[in-house]
Structures are given as C-alpha cells and as structure tokens.
C-alpha cells in the first residue's frame, strides 16, 4: 500500500504528554542542580488539559501495546479513544497504525468512524475516498465524493475533480468506477463553476472504461467553450487513435500557438503511437529546430528515422541527442535516468549500424552497454548479430539465458526467440517454438497471434484462421487479429464481404493504424474499387512508407493506368528495403519493368 497517501503522523498530544511525564522521572536527579544555576523565569499561566484520567490511561495503554508489537490491541484501544474524544489527530493515528500494519479494512473502519464522528472534516472524507479506491470498493465511492463536493470550496472541488481519475488508474473494473461516480459527476456538471471539471473527470473515467465515443463527446463540449483548455487537449491526444475527430482541436491549438512546444511534443508522441511515423518525425524535426538544446526531440527523431529505415538521418539525430544529454548534466555526471537514456541511444545506434550491415560497428555500440541483470532487448540485439554472422546456436543460447521463472519472464523469452527466428526467416522453427509457447501459456493472445502469423508463412491457412479467431475470443479488442484475418481473406480473394467487415472492425479499434488502413485499401482493390483503394493506400503510405504498403499502392496505381507513378513508389520502397519480396513479386506478376 503506498505510503505516500498516508504520511507518518506526529505523535498525538496525549501520547506526547505521556512521553514527557516519563522523561521527567528520568531527569529528576538533575532538577535541583538546574534550579540552582538557572536564572529565575517569569511564571507561565497554567493551562489545564481537558483530558481525564481514564482517557490518559487508555492512550498510555494503546501506545505501550503498540511498542510491544500488539498492533491489533493498540488499534482497538486507540480507536475507542478516538471515538470518545472525537480528536482528529487521534483518528489519523489509528488510520496510520492500520495502514502500516497492512490492514486495509481496519484502516477503512477507522476512516469511516472519523468521517462519521467529525462530518465536517474534509480530511476524513478524503482519507475514506483514498482507502475505498485502494481497496477496490467502487460501490461506496459516491458518498465521500458528494460530501467533498458539498464541503469543499470551489477551488477544492475543482481540484478533487481533476485528481479523482488518478485514484483509479489501476482499478481492475473501471466500468464499476464509472457506474458509481457518473450520477454524481452529472449532478456536479449542472453547477456552472464545476461543469468543466465534472465533464473532464467523467471523460477520463469513460476512456478508462473503454468508451471512446462518450469520452470524446464530453471533451469536445469543453473544447467548444475553451479551445485552449490544457486538460481537454490532453484528453483529445489520448483519444486520437480511436476518435479521428479529436485531432482537429489539437492542430487548431498548435496553429494558434506555434510556440507551444509541450503540446507539440505530446502531439508528436500521439502520432507515433498511432504509427503515423512520417508525420511524427516531421513534428519532432520541427522541435529540434525550435529547441535545438533540448535532448528529448533529438532522441525521438532518431528513433523514428530508424523505424522509417533512414539510417543516414537517424545516426546524426542520435549522436546529437548524446551530445545534448552530456551538456544537460548539471554536475558533469548523468543521473540514473540519463544513463539509461544514453544506453537506449547506444542500442538504437547499434540498430542503425545493422541497417547498414556494419556488424562490427553494431557490436561496438552494444559493447558499451552495461547491465546488472540480463535484459531482453539487449540480449535480442546481441543474439541477432550473432545469427547474422552464422552463429544461430549461440544466438538462441543467449536468449535462453534470460530469466524464465515467472509467466511474464517466460513470455518475454518466447517472444524474443521467436522474433529472432522470424527475422532470419526460419518460419518452421518459429512456428514450432510458438507452439510450445502457447501450450505453456494458452491464454496469451499475443503469443497465439504470433503463432497464427507463422502459420500463414507456412501456408497453413486453416490453422491460421483458427488461431486468429481464438485470439479474438481471448482478447476481443485485439485489432491486429481482426486485421490479419481480414487481410488474409482479401489477399486470397475469399469471402471479401466478411474480410471487409473484419477490417472495418479493426479500424474502429485503431482508426489511423497504417497497417489496417493498408488492409482496407487492399480489400477495396479486391472488390474492384480502384479509386477507393488508391485513397486508402495513399493514406497508409504517407503515414508509414514501408515496402509492403508500397507494393500494394504501386499495384493499384499500375492497374489504374498510372504506371510511372507506380514505378516511382516501388523504387522508393526498394530504396528503403532492398530486396523487399512483396514489391518484387508484384512487379514480376504485373510484368512491370523497373
């Protein structure tokens, strides 16, 4: 249980009085000597304590039981004393004892007693709310929230609404949280002073529960009233990959304030999350011009250029990042996070060297990285370098040295080794390995999806379809599975209407994902709709110009009579990915000379 929610409390006044009384006995031997030497002091007025003898004794017993390790007895004694005295400091002390003893239910009992005993205490209601969130009791949330909104000032209520969703970021059932709080938030939204905060709070909870459309409706209402509202713009960025309309107000805000570098960087990251790599790279490139001394945009630009297979652009960006990182170290020594960032840059520079097939340079960058325990990404890169040089057995052994005690560690190891085999086009070995993985972890949708992709490579299409449908059954929002199944049907010219429905479903879950946009273009092509196919494929290629999308766009352009443009797209694709099989196959089948 996080201690930050319950900071250590000072001893209660009565416990302190006990300690002082005992201390007086220990110091009595020195009292006469001190009195003889000290100058006379004016007498202070006597302030009699309101504590009676039974209360004094009860608190003394409670603190003594606590010191002797009898936490349960101390809790009961002090809680009874708190109820008798209605002393807030004592209530806090009891809550603290329960929290430190990891007794969440008992902490909640004490907090509720505090709230009931001192109903006007904001802190009592706040503590109750925090404990209800930590103990996953959404059905009881409405009361404390309503009380806090009623008792707090306008600014306190607005703060509550801003911070409330953060209490539930790890809630196992976000829908129950939304159901519990939605009526209270909608009531609060009728108050003009709280409307904006209540709408944004509900929008966050709607998004957490997986309801992107109502989350966007609420966010849009705020932005219509205040287009530059920062929290609403942040929500719009989070919604971009599921609600395409959410991008427009962000772009409008950047047009109004081109120097809003924080928003631009957040927008660039949202583009990258949506796999719109070309646009993301353009935004980060602009940031490197406008903020050349800031390290972060250089790192982001380098990693994006690497993904776009532009090693000649990725390398200088990453080297500049390393230089700016060293310059930003105030004492000449990098912080722990700075050292980690430097290692990640070295890892990316190793990949840059790999793209150039400079194995020696790639290994040299990896050799700079020092880690205390084996790390999957580092082990994978080292293994791939070994395999590229014909040492596959050594490469696989390196992956096997990764820890595999827990299911998550085992999953990571399976993923790393299967990725290694896929990169080497060892399809049968990868399929066999993923079969072992899904046998060990049968409920892992991602492993099952990867196995389906290997089945497709081996032309085991019935198995692939069965595995993809099982993936969807396990993870109904696995948009990659919908897309893969729809694309596979479209590519084989089978059940095209069903294929399109599957891809539409994938797009509803990830509207701007270039791979899915490419699939939509391809199924439209198979349905004979060339104009629609070109529109979709051009959009996908603009976001992520990889070889397979280039192959599809080129074919559609060729069939539409735009042969020179088709040759240009294919040439661009082969420049990025020499030897791309999809482009070569399309040109050969269409008898399209370079």
Tally of helical segments: 33
Q: How many strands?
A: 0
- Computed structural class: mainly alpha
Chain-averaged pLDDT: 87
Q: Percent of residues in beta strands?
A: under 5%
Largest sheet features: none
Q: Return Rg in Å.
A: 32 Å
Signal peptide: 1-31
Pfam family, one: TPR_16
Protein name: Tetratricopeptide repeat protein
Organism: Roseateles flavus
Please give the structural blueprint.
Layout: H1 13-27, H2 31-37, H3 53-67, H4 71-85, H5 88-100, H6 104-117, H7 122-134, H8 142-151, H9 154-163, H10 174-188, H11 195-208, H12 212-225, H13 230-239, H14 247-256, H15 261-273, H16 277-290, H17 295-307, H18 311-328, H19 336-355, H20 359-367, H21 376-388, H22 392-400, H23 407-423, H24 427-440, H25 445-457, H26 461-474, H27 479-491, H28 496-509, H29 514-526, H30 530-543, H31 547-559, H32 563-576, H33 581-589
Helix pairs in contact: 3-4, 4-5, 5-6, 6-7, 7-8, 8-9, 8-10, 9-11, 10-11, 11-12, 11-13, 12-13, 13-14, 13-15, 15-16, 16-17, 17-18, 17-19, 18-19, 19-20, 20-21, 21-22, 21-23, 23-24, 24-25, 25-26, 26-27, 27-28, 27-29, 28-29, 29-30, 29-31, 30-31, 31-32, 31-33
Tell me about this structure.
Residues 1-31 form the signal peptide. Keywords: Repeat, Signal, TPR repeat. It holds the Pfam family TPR_16. This is Tetratricopeptide repeat protein. This protein is an all-alpha fold. The protein is built from 33 helices and no strands. The protein is globular, with a radius of gyration of 32 Å.
